Request: fold
Amino acid sequence: MMRAAPSQEEVRRDNLGTLLRHIHLRGPASRAALAEGMGLNRSTIMALTGDLTAAGVVREELPRGTGRPSLMVSPESTRVYVLAFDIGVDRLVAARVGLGGVILDRREAERPRDSFDPDALVGALAGFTRQLVRKAGRDAVCVGAGAAFSGTVRRADGTIRYGPDLGAKDVSLGDALSRRLALGLTVAIGNDANLGALAEHQRGVGVGCPDLIYLHGDVGVGGGIIVGGRLLEGADGYGGEVGHMVVNPSGRRCGCGSLGCLEAEVGEHALLERAGRGGAGRVGRDAVRAVVDAADRGDAAARDALHRTGEWLGLGVANLVNIFNPGMVIFGGTLRDIYPASAAQVRSRLATSTPAAPRERVRLRTAELGDDTTLVGAAELAFGEVLADPLQVLARLRTAVPDPSGTTA
Amino acid sequence: MMRAAPSQEEVRRDNLGTLLRHIHLRGPASRAALAEGMGLNRSTIMALTGDLTAAGVVREELPRGTGRPSLMVSPESTRVYVLAFDIGVDRLVAARVGLGGVILDRREAERPRDSFDPDALVGALAGFTRQLVRKAGRDAVCVGAGAAFSGTVRRADGTIRYGPDLGAKDVSLGDALSRRLALGLTVAIGNDANLGALAEHQRGVGVGCPDLIYLHGDVGVGGGIIVGGRLLEGADGYGGEVGHMVVNPSGRRCGCGSLGCLEAEVGEHALLERAGRGGAGRVGRDAVRAVVDAADRGDAAARDALHRTGEWLGLGVANLVNIFNPGMVIFGGTLRDIYPASAAQVRSRLATSTPAAPRERVRLRTAELGDDTTLVGAAELAFGEVLADPLQVLARLRTAVPDPSGTTA
Reply:
């Protein structure tokens, strides 16, 4: 509480971070625009971009074919990258993501359900990583690694506390991954919906909206919440677990042991059962899409299942709108398909379950980054350290670049 | 997003505010302790305390009877004060609160239910204000005014959008109060539970807990939520309306028109009806206390009513713990009596309705500031401006001190 204003050295570091973050999130900008946007004079901007250019994270060049005198500052996207992993219930994605947010390369595999083998998981990601790193340029530097996981993650050490196919045993996935990759980097782990919220807030439909809720559907329903521009983490990093909000106390049994949790009423199992497709049939994203497609073709059972699911989704959204007064609610994962097919029910429930004030300006939207929302969030998590202190992180990494092909075999 | 690091002038203003806020919230401190706490050298601290002393907001003196060389810096509590109003469902409180948070003087009246007469309300508060201001010293300066209101308040202009005895008509209470008091000050209005959360966070049981939820019971249930040390306001300031979270979709009709809202299941009416005391009997805080007293004496109906109310309260708390992963949940207003009498039900529901991780470190507590929680919150709202920029606000007010006895008659 008593923190004094920052020192000159902190000011310089923060300005470097602010400038680099701007280039990273919004793309190339002229020195003049940066000076105006940051409220700094042009000589200060020139000193900052000079430092960043020397560190190899941005480049400055005259824009082609224009008479404009101001140098454009662009991110060195292929030279400065992170590794991003998305560990979903049904799939595994690994990507090399360059500064500026461009996905330079990616690998993807299906993931078997109903078993959780940390060794196999780490092994698969390490294999992907070797392929990705090998393709990077000789002068490229990996500045971070992040993973999105569909479960409850303790902020302090990245331990998985609870997951849909995992139950409630603690797994030190971040440590295991960091050791196995052996890139001299810690792999930061975050809850997939929390990272999805960050991604949509920074690069998706939620840009410019400081108060938003991201709902991510897969087997269950996860949530990530941005409050006043910052991710709601809670005391230990478990914040945003809206899937276990009870919306129907006499409802369906949830995997957590409780009755009528939002994810029990809105998750994949509930939808498939209501549509008469439970049991041994297809599961996952494709199965959910099949219900939506059937409803589009006029299948009454599918349509009814979506409408009933939409009622509960609407009740959950209404509760969250009352609690948070958000500017936007974003539907991602399977909810990207379910919401448009049940929007009337969701909106009707929202209109009747909450006083007017908190809902009158809320926008309901689907995730703009599509199937990559949580992957992009993992990349942003990985970029966090270098954006907070660019020069220090770059200096450390450039003096100790490991040889991944030798150590991760 | 692109905000640059602060200028020297902003640094000085922020340091003055930080120092004054510390003295205001934590009481007298030595220059040496301030220097260490703020990480500034002693000559910088001396310059800051000198400015604040010259402005008349703090005084510096040698501690009596000790050999300690460091001057103590204390708030000028009787010279610098705010007006705080608490507009509850059943009572009206006005107080003069000095810098440092000391309640210097107060007036209180009962408020009739089931009618909302803004003119009468403003008139009553203006009358109290005249009495309070008249008793202040000649050299005292009123630096702000704030009011806690048991309803939904729009942040932008302090308009009341929804209230228990008010329905959903818009009332510009802040404007009306500011005009009528004619102190040259804007009366800031906040939702009572939001301000209660701030008060308990800054001066009550929640000190040092950056993630907490305050639940305030009266006719309904209000909520105020602190996320990462900051009040959750939402897009328009309506955040924290947990009373309209639906916990029982086939439950009791709520005043908002919905079914089974937390406040419909946990509010005063539900408790009194369950205890067989609905209808024409006593209402309000005393009626709730009578149920708790009866249960203590062994009255089975009262005990059962409290236990059933505790079940729903526990379900609401469990939902909030899942969503926020708070370090603490604080029960205020009538819930200060209801929670201890139903703690077993609340805790049992919490244990079964949420996965272990988000609840394992949460503490359930009653409000430490007692019946004054929301009043103290209104005072802190009023102090906000002077703490953000002490010298500028003081300079403005000292050059234009109005004569309240002449203008508010």
Remarks:
- The radius of gyration of chain A is 23 Å.
- Residues 285 and 334 of chain A are 6 Å apart (CA to CA).
- Chain A has three domains: 8-75, 80-194+372-386, 206-368.
- Chain A touches chain B through 73 residues (CB under 8 Å).
